[in-house]
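Input record (one chain):
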Amino acid sequence: MVEKTGNSGNEKKDLVEKASYLMAIISWSQPFLDGNKRTGIVSTIKFLRDNGYELEMKKEDETEIRNLLYDIQNQRTCLDQSVVKQIIIIVFDNIQLLLYPQDLIGSCLVVLCLKS
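The corresponding structure, as predicted from the sequence alone:
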């Protein structure tokens, strides 16, 4: 699955696909005792930000993403590709290119503070 993800040659499309799978896989695999969906969402936001994009969701899209992540979590046998495709569409519709390099600097500062 990973080898086939995000290799279209279209940078924005590839980043969104990888970010969406990151969110979905963390929610599906449940690696933590608690907060897996939140971790998936935050990881996706961080991944997109580090690659020059901002994820700004409308309230109804936030609700839809959470519902899709619950659907993924409840299907324990395999990661439902149709649900992931819906997540990809929502993420793609809600990202925008960061306009200023200082937006990226703020992201780097957060990482430095966390490592200290």
